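Contributing new complexes? Match this layout with adenosine-5'-triphosphate.
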Amino acid sequence: MSETSKSLNFIEQIVAEDLQKGYTEKDLRFRFPPEPNGYLHIGHASSICLNFGLGLKHNAPVNLRFDDTNPAKEEQRFVDAIKRDVEWLGFKWDTERYASDYFQQLYDWAVVLIKKGKAYVDDQSSEEMAKQKGTPTEPGTESPNRNRSVEENLALFEAMKNGEFEEGSHVLRAKIDMTSSNMLMRDPIMYRVLHKAHHRTDTNWCIYPMYDWTHGESDYIEQVSHSFCTLEFAMHRELYDWFLDQVYEADKVRPKQREFARRNLSHTVVSKRKLAQLVEQNIVNGWDDPRMPTISGLRRRGYTPESIRNFADTIGIAKRDNLIDVSLLEFHVREHLNKIVPRVMGVLDPLKVVITNYPEGQEEWLTAENSPEDEALGTREVPFSREIYIEKADFKEAANKKFFRLKLGHEVRLKNGYIIKAESCTKDADGNVVEVQCTYDPKSKSGSGTEESLRKVKGTLHWVSVKHAIPAEIRLYDRLFTDESPDTHKDKDFMEFINPNSLEVITGYVEPSLATAKPQERFQFQRMGYFCVDPDSQPGKLVFNRTVGLRDSWAKIQEKS
Ligand code: ATP
Ligand code: MG
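Output block (do not edit by hand):
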């Protein structure tokens, strides 16, 4: 679909309508507001593409705002990782902001609220306050501290700030309505005491503002016009607006919160907290483990930014939560890699083939096209000799007509090379085939222009020359969870569904052109899938990750439905 014919999603429509109703493009400003308590995941990619996409569309600035109000969970290394990932996805933020930049302003505004009689310090136990909250069907009861004098509240709040109270002993609450049908409006907490050093403000503060008090006011300070968040904040909108009412000045842009559905991906979990559990319990090897649904994990696995953006674009923005099958994500990376990466040959499960009529000690270099999709990728030379490896699964002593690979008495073509015919095979004591003896047709070399070179045989196999092959560690990945939706079971924890076989490490043999491959370089191993050099790779010790196989399971799912 072209940019113009593509219909607007409901979020884009909200912006478009606002532009009809008095907003100008100059008023538009968006933000992406991650909490630096973990790495970004594929769910965040939707939010990033939405907010930065709107910025590009309207030529409006987009802030990267770290929502860093909980020093117990947030760390500088997460800030660094988030910045790296947003940049890698291809987006540029206008300014880098931190909610913690606004701690003083938020404090000053809280004092204003106290002076207006709209906030008070409560020193009841949290159990007591919880009891007074009521239930969705019963109104709450007012705190005995609700009507403290302004002077007393100011003094207590200052004492909170000065570190005179213990954690959990005092909170500042907004004085709203203990009978509201929206439980969040029943005198919500604005500040709590936390004697923890913050990764940016260190020990300057020992009171920290709550999300609701922070988010809208930060949007307001930055003059964000549209604040898009996920559906679980829908009920918070009333409070977002109430807090804004307290500080809003007429000539300013008034931020508007709107909600869209969280994106969930099958066979994984998209929650920083749960992903942190996988890291902490060493279920995976860090946040960037190629099995993780994090942006860093996907990058290490071999995903391209384009494939992730295209995925986010395809699934779009929805009003209701739903589960996206991971094979759709795989479809997008396969589609992109198919266009851009060179083809090479690598054998994952080797079986030795001896070409008995090829002179011993002889070798030759065959010219191979790097990609049928892109001539600009050029050609390379691949060595051929008397002994080669093929894939074990590509040989059978005898098989039916549908087996277009190598079987005794039949021919196949070696990719970029000759036609060979299987004559005999050798087995070990257990009856496993350990070597196949073949003859080759010397006139059948691909691209040589002879009649024989054009001869069609059913079946083309990839191979590597034994003498020239480079052993490489190859990491094959499977789904991290055996269940489609591991974190939606009432009676079972998501950790119970971990797939014990999500990683298989094997030694494969790759053609020598890969000897100098660098981390993050991507290839198609012909007939085997897409592979990417892992950062663990070293000169003389190659390590590859399989990004995705060649088979398109997404298309199959589509056919079925
Ligand atoms: P997590 O539970 O993984 O920590 P979060 O919502 O707490 O998620 P934030 O760092 O607060 O994470 O998220 C930053 C932005 O990304 C928010 O606007 C949030 O709504 C959005 N977001 C987070 N997860 C998803 C998701 N799965 N799908 C779409 N948007 C998401
Ligand atoms: Mg969060």
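Reviewers usually confirm one structural detail per submission. For this one: The chain has three domains: 24-260, 265-342+472-560, 346-462.
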